[in-house]
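In the previous chapter we treated chains in isolation. Here, by contrast, the input contains two separate entities that must be folded as one system, with a combined length of 485 residues.
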Amino acid sequence: MKRLLFTMAILLSCWSLMGQDESEGTTKFMLRGYSQGGFTATKDDNSFGSVGFSPLFIYRHDDKLIFESELEFEYEGGELSMALEYANVSYKVSNSLWLRAGKIIVPFGNWFERIHPSWINPLPTMPLGYGHGGILPTADLGIEARGAAYLGKMKFNYSAYLVNGPQLNDGDHEQEEAGMVSHGVTVDNNNNKFVGGRFGIFPFKNSSLELGFSGLTGKVGAKDSEFNKVGSRLYALDLSYIKSLNFMKSIISVRAQKSFINVDDVEYKIIHEDGDEEHLEFDNKVRSLYTQISIKPALVGSKFIRSLEFVGRYANINQPKGAPWAKNPTQLAFGVNYWFSWRSVLKFAYQINGIDTVPMEMGHDDEPIDIHGPEPVGGHGAMGGANTFYIQWAIGF
Amino acid sequence: MKYLKLILSLSIVVAFTFMVAVSCTATMPFGKGGAQLWGENCMRCHNTPPPTSFGDEQWDVIATHMELRAQLTDQEMKTILEFLKSAN
């Protein structure tokens, strides 16, 4: 009830603030955002799924200072959940340098920062590894420098940042997750900060192709634990190619990202229910990949056909052999979308989820656990589970 | 020691930023007009919005937001904004 009242208060505040859009002066405020909801069906079950609403607040003090924040409300299973997706203030130091502080979207790869909103993401789910509880960073507390410029005739963009960073689960409390790293934890577990950055280049003059390299490194172990020297290094290579192809009368979009997550090898102590103690040591390297293609026949004459979009995506994660949480999930999704306007869409998609369980080397009988798969209809990536048919509406505003 | 690492990390970020800031030879999009930049940059992530979707005051806010989010150069943002306002 408190959450409901809080939500209503937020919405009423937003409604009154929207009136400021047309005001005169240099100070400008906007309320934007997006919403989505839908229907899911598997072989055995079907249901109208969750509904999400994500208001985006933008306060532009002047052309050098801006505050941005995105909230996320999601109603699912009779529960309303709320999250602060990001909230940060940015200052323009020069024409090619912005400084930002607060809860920032971590510029790691080309997915989350660019196309996570449901009205932009062409599928109802995210690629494996993204979303709340995923293995890849999405948002964190810290500071960032970012910008773009031209070197010669080639455009590039960059970001460099310091964040609290991911944390290691040492198996003390959730021993079935020993060796996993968690992202987006608000309180840092040590005094070490993660250093990260992304560098993107546009080799072609028309900016159709962007190639990016991301890196993030720091200590993941808690400062007062025996794991305080354990470090982690994350890398990603990403590609995006978006081009209007006249011979196909279509706009084609190709995206891909290969991510590498390396955690220092250490020994984890697992205590079973029967009191037996087990020591786990494994090569803690996780690899993930997603590739996605979408085609919009936007240049054809028929209004109906040019409102369509065809999309396909493949994603996988390879987890370390010997880890209690090891699985090798795969995700194959196909979809057809109908765009009512440039920011409102109805999506139809079918997703085939596969999991190859990686055998334990240590030989106990515990089943590997499912690492948290974000919810499907709310714009997050489903991991494992039955093959699913989705219908999702999404609107940006 | 922990402060040394923090200072070192900060120094790397500052040095990298400074290096980028001073090494940029230009922020000019090399003769591209506002319409071309608007098409090229918007569709990198989402459908291209018609200029009439927002008023001039709103475009001011959105342009700053997108300069930051989509990592547009200052000149690109200004050229696109000028086009959007002229087409409104």
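The mean pLDDT of chain B is 81. Chain B touches chain A through 48 residues (CB under 8 Å). Compare these points with the single-chain example from earlier in the chapter.
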